[in-house]
Amino acid sequence: MRKPNPDTPFDSPTPPRERGLLGTLANSAWPILLGIALAAALHYFWPLGPGWLYYKKVVLDVGIAIILAVSLNIVNGMTGQFSLGHAAFLAIGGYTSGIVTYYGSILLWKSTDLHGGVLGPGAWLFVFACLLGALVATAAGYVVGLPSLRLRGDYLAIVTLGFGEILRVVLQQTNPILSPDQLDSSSLKNWLPPPVGGAVGFNGLPTYTTLFWVYVFVALMLVVAFRLKRSSLGRAMISVREDEFAAQAMGVHVARVKVMAFMIAAFFAGLAGGLFAHESGLILRPLDAGFLRSLDYVIMTVLGGRGSISGVVLAATLLTVLPEYLRDFDQYRLIVYSLLLIGMMLLRPQGLFGIHEIWDWRPRWFTRKPQTRSPSNEKRGAA
Amino acid sequence: MPRHVPSASFCVPDQPDWCSQVGAARMFSFGVFFPMGCLFASLLIGCGGGSSGDEICLGHYASLTGAQATFGRSTDNGILLAIEEINAAGGVNGKKVRLITYDDKGDAREAGTAATRLVTRDGVVAVLGEVATSLSLAAAPVCQENGIPMVSPSSTNTKVTQVGDKIFRVCFIDPFQAYACAKFAREHEALKANKAAILYDQASGYSVGLREEFAKSFAKLGGTIVSEQAYTEGDQDFSAQLTAIRASEPDVIFIPGYYTDVGNIAIQTQKLGIATPLLGADGWDSSKLAGIAGKAIEGAYYSNHYSQQDPDPAVQSFISKYKAKHGETPDALAALGYDAARIVCLAIGQAGSTKGDDIAAKLASTKGFPGVTGKISIDADRNAVKPAMMIQMKDGIPTYVTTIQPE
């Protein structure tokens, strides 16, 4: 790894170039457009042969895990607030979007079958439902973020854990799902609490989750995460993580920063929840709001490294693919998996990449920096 | 939280401004191509599997680890025994049968992935699984969409086979089990119950379903439900619910839970001096029940899929063969796994092909199959119609009492 330049302990010693709102949007737009193109390529060029459906499912799971882990990393890694309730946002997003697509499909098309292809009307209902689920999850993120103003460390972890467990118990008390012919004769009694299946789970949702939509949202997540990390809000989050009091003394609005971190993370977790709920071979259960599901993603962020987006992406991919690789170990699979986890944490206690990104390890010749950097920066600063 | 990270490391040092965009793009291509690379690698590593010329592959997904590991293990043992017997007798249509079992650790996401792998990569001709309803519900659409028949050995919730025409089961369903319990409570000599109380696990779909059906059947048969109390799996203290139940003076207490909780409930019932007989369902069936509850469970009744004391020679020979192979007494899940595997192999043999549609058609026409869990007929809803055994705990041994026939 390169050593930091002692003259410039923090990057960008000059004030950032002024771009204006449109410039900023344009700068975010092209990676997203590229992401959409890649997602479409992935979707349309995916082979059809035997076995490829299985790999497709694993790649779908990887995408969803990336969204969840990277969003959790905004709270746990960047802001340093230890949350154990991330799966609760997933469940909120999943259940909300599930209600919209399931009952929406019945109202619109009289059945829960798929309606149209990857860009058909059904898929747009699904995307709308996912975004709605994400917004509801954001509201929940605001509520959960509030206690983080007074609590830290273990105490905050317990509050967030409690939130997930409460949600799990509440979801167990819900009404059975209404089938299309039951819908007409349903009364208010069937709708309060909502008919989302109770302890059995919310099954029978149309399976709109495709490679295209998952990786479009992965692209969105990654662009937001990288822009955030380099924005003033992101810097403020990192400063809160490093030293809350020092950050406050420097004028960082700690309360706002913490709540924002929770809300952004909850938005994307809710979005991933929508994808999760509509995936084939899955059933959304109250257990998905609970502690064990949250822990899956906490492990990914810890393994990836605090605040390292590429590290968390790598960890999410590894930890989703690894259990599938290890299937041949039969019932010893989880023992092998746990041993590998312990080994990785012993070798890299700071996470795979620590606080760095993967390209910090690129060879020197790969960058054009040392020679061209100073003059160009001066020019920019002057402009 | 521990702070291992050196201070003054706000961000990656030495990065010029343009890195943010280039980073995002590079990152994205990484996020897409890395998983793809992994998958290509696994394609090369993965064994061919599949139902090749001289063998027929059956798939099984089960909770071999996790909270319900004993269920999955028993079922798998039962299936293995059945397949060993079938192979010893020459296989199916002259081909050996091979079982591929994957663990789902009791997680719905893993159950779906395991089923997808079995169906689309390993090329199994039929899938067996799961015990828990929600896991069967996760995997069933995968089998249905790919046209591979799935037979659940022991998911009793009605929803499972409603997924589609390729989904079957070899156990009875919750409404029948609840009916059997209600009928037994109303009519058995020692009970003749007019008033029943229910103590159910609100976190389990299985328990909630049985509670509703039992309440319906019991009322239909002329009884009254005097109290309904809830607990959550893993609770330790049931005294509040039991005191409330005692105050309602029931003739029988119906507890549709799993054996771990039931053991604790029985002990606390005894401590509170409640002499009302306890009644339960197939979730009680475990050799560990007597160990947990001891004397407190004496005299309690439950419904089950089969009885170890059934004098039928087929049952007794199954039990002795199972003991010889796996070194323990088979529980109902093992017996159901055994029956499920035999029914599937019989259907494949009769169909004479390994096409999903042909096997499903033969499965649907199963009538009077002589299983160790009773005569099994598949009805129009692809559920098994079969009797339930009522069992009583006597001296720590589950003892056969009577059989309740389907309506």
Question: What keyword list fits this structure?
Answer:
heterodimer, A: 383 residues, mainly alpha, ABC transporter involved in vitamin B12 uptake, BtuC, 15 helices, disordered C terminus, B: 407 residues, alpha/beta, Rossmann fold, 2 domains, seven-stranded mixed β-sheet, five-stranded parallel β-sheet, 12 helices, elongated, disordered N terminus
* Counted beta strands of chain A: 0
**Helix segment count of chain A?**
15
Strand content of chain A: under 5%
Secondary-structure element order of chain B, N to C: HEHEHEHEEHEHEHEHEHEHHHEEEEE
Name the pair of protein chains with the most residues at their interface, and give those residue counts: A-B, 95 and 77 residues
CATH architecture of the domain at 26-290 in chain A: Orthogonal Bundle
CATH topology of the domain at 26-290 in chain A: ABC transporter involved in vitamin B12 uptake, BtuC
CATH architecture of the largest domain in chain B: 3-Layer(aba) Sandwich
Listing every helix as H and every strand as E from the N terminus to the C terminus, the arrangement of chain A reads HHHHHHHHHHHHHHH
Question: How would you sum up this structure, described in words?
Answer:
The complex is a heterodimer of chains A (383) and B (407). Chain A is mostly helical and 383 residues long. Chain A has a domain at 26-290: ABC transporter involved in vitamin B12 uptake, BtuC, CATH 1.10.3470. In chain A, 66% of the residues lie in helices and 0% in strands. Chain A is globular and about 65 Å long. In chain A, 50% of the residues are buried. The model of chain A is unreliable at 371-383 (pLDDT under 50). Chain B has 2 domains: 55-172 and 311-386, Rossmann fold; 175-304, Rossmann fold. Chain B is 43% helix and 19% strand. Chain B has helices at 19-45, 69-88, 108-121, 133-145, 174-187, 205-220, 239-247, 259-271, 288-293, 313-326, 332-351, 356-364, and strands at residues 55-62, 96-103, 126-128, 150-152, 167-169, 195-201, 224-231, 252-255, 278-280, 301-304, 369-371, 374-378, 384-385, 388-394, 397-404. In chain B, strands 7-6-8-9-10-14-15 form a 7-stranded mixed beta sheet, with helices on both faces. A 5-stranded parallel beta sheet of chain B has the order 2-1-3-4-5, sandwiched between helices. A 3-stranded antiparallel beta sheet of chain B has the order 11-12-13, covered by helices on one side. The model of chain B is unreliable at 1-51 (pLDDT under 50). Classes of the chains: A mainly alpha (383), B alpha/beta (407). At the A-B interface, α1, α2, α5, α8 and α9 of A face α1, β2, α3, α4 and α6 of B.
